[in-house]
Amino acid sequence: MPQRSPHLRRRCSALLCSGVLALLPLLQSPAEARGGGGFRAGGGGYRNHRVGDHPHFGGGVRSSFNNDRVNVNMHNTFYNRGYGGWHDGWRRGGYWGARPWNTGWYRGWGGWGWWGASAAAWGVAGLATGAAITSLVNEAADQQSTTIIVPQTSYQLNFGSVESVGTAGVSFNYGVNGTTLMGAANCQDGLLNGQVPSDADQAQLLNAVCQVAYGSGTGS
Predict the structure, then answer these.
(1) Residue 204 contacts by C-beta under 8 Å, 6 or more apart in sequence?
(2) What is the pLDDT of residues 150-174, one digit of tens each?
(3) Which end of the chain is more exposed for a tag (fewer CB within 10 A), N or C?
């Protein structure tokens, strides 16, 4: 049997190593990403043992992000956006009525089972109100921006990236320490990337996302 040259053996070893290194990011768990467990890949079509549920987004998840009531042949739709993800129709509070999914049911953090004990441990009485988030979104949209600073945090939420997933889930992008991450929220159970927030900042981010996705948008 012919012997491989040392040069060829070194080349194969290098290729093998590079292949292993390329796979390492895929083997990391979501909690290993920076910024409170954000992740860099979606997965709206994933199903766990309960049909229709997703570990990050909750129940009612379909095979793709839902574009309810959107007519792709119309020009003035929620998803027909210009450079940077901004939509001209979002000016003067137009964002809230443009959301093409079931909205208005989110009433804040009070229904989350973990809230009472966690809030006491963090020493906080509540999170940003719907009125505060509504005001921030409206001001940003009027300035042709899709980014707001989540109150009392250093998180930057891209509200233009917010999309409903299933019945109570949200897919979104946010920034922290100069890094842009993809996040997942379950607004019904109060989960951020499939987990209970570990501090008040993460809870503020989760609440802001849920207000943008499912809040009334009327300032209440």
Answers:
(1) 127, 128, 150, 151, 152, 153, 155
(2) 999 999 999 999 999 888 999 999 9
(3) N
